[in-house]
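Figure-free illustration: sequence to structure, shown twice.
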Amino acid sequence: MTKKAVMVKAWKVARSAAAKFGGKVKQYFAEALRQAWKATRLPQPAKLETLTGSRKHKTWVARITAIGGQYKYERAFINNFKHLGHALEYTLTDGIYDVCNGGQRSFIQVSGGVIAEIEEWEIAG
C-alpha cells in the first residue's frame, strides 16, 4: 500500500467516524491514521487456484514446516479451500508451500500476498 493510499484510507475512516459519532474530522484523523498504517503491516493472504484433480492425479497444497522427516519435509496440509467448478482456491499466508496440482509438483513461496514459484534447492537456504 502506498503512502498516498494510506492517507486516503485514513481520511475516509476519519470522515466516517465524524459522521457517525459527531465532531470534526480532524479529531478522528490521528487514530484513523494509526489504524491505516497498522493495516499495511498485517500479513496479506494470497489466493492460489489449482485443478480439482482426479483419482490418478491428486491435488493438494501443504505448508512446509520443517526440513527432514520421512518424506524429506515435514508438512501441514491445507484443507480449507473453495470449490470453483473445475478448480480449487486456497487462501495462503506467508511461508513456503509444496503444491501438487493434478500430478504436477512444484514449490511456492508466499510473501506479502505475492506468490512466487521457487526451486526445491532454495527451500534449504
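We now fold a second protein in the same way, so the two outputs can be compared directly.
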Amino acid sequence: MRWFWVDRFTEYVAGDRAVAHKGVTLSDEFIHDHWGGYPVMPNSLIAEGMAQTSGLLVSELYKFQELVVLAKFTKLEFDGLVLPGQTLKYTAQIGATKDIGAQATVTAHVGDHQQAHAEIFFARMHADSAGREEMPEKLFDADDLCHWLHVTGVFRVGVHQDGSRMHPSEYGLPEYTG
C-alpha cells in the first residue's frame, strides 16, 4: 500500500472490531492542495482511512490469505471539516459476513464529534471468479503486510475474541525484525 491513512491502532479484536487513529498535520502534503489557502483533510481520504481500518478486519477474517477488495460504500455521511492539529479516531465493527464477503460499520470522530459514518462492503475474490486470472493473488507482499501491521500496532494491541494475543505466525506472516 502506498498511502496509509491510519497511523496506529489502539484496539484490535480479531474478527470483531478495531480502533485506529490518524493525526492530521500541516506537514501532510495533501492538506495544501485540497482547498488552496484553507487546509483541510479531504473527505475522500477520511473515507479511505475508514476503509483501511475496516478492510484490515475483513482481510483478517480470511487470515490475510485471500484477496479482499472494497466493493462499495452502502452508506457514507460526513459532518464537518477535519483541520490540521486534529486527530481522527476510526472505530470499525464487523457486521454481516457471507461467503462472498463482509460488511463493516465505521465511524470517524474528532474528539466527541462524529465527523463521518459509513457502511462498507468488502468482496472476497474467489479463485473461480470471472476475471480472477488477471488479478493478483494478494494485494500485499507478506513482508510488507507484516511490517505495516507491526508499525501501526496491530500485533501490539491485537487480541482474538477469547482475549489471547495475535501473532504473525498464525497468519503465515514472518516475524517483524525492523
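Summary for the second example: Strands lie at 8-13, 17-23, 68-78, 87-98, 101-110, 113-124, 158-159.
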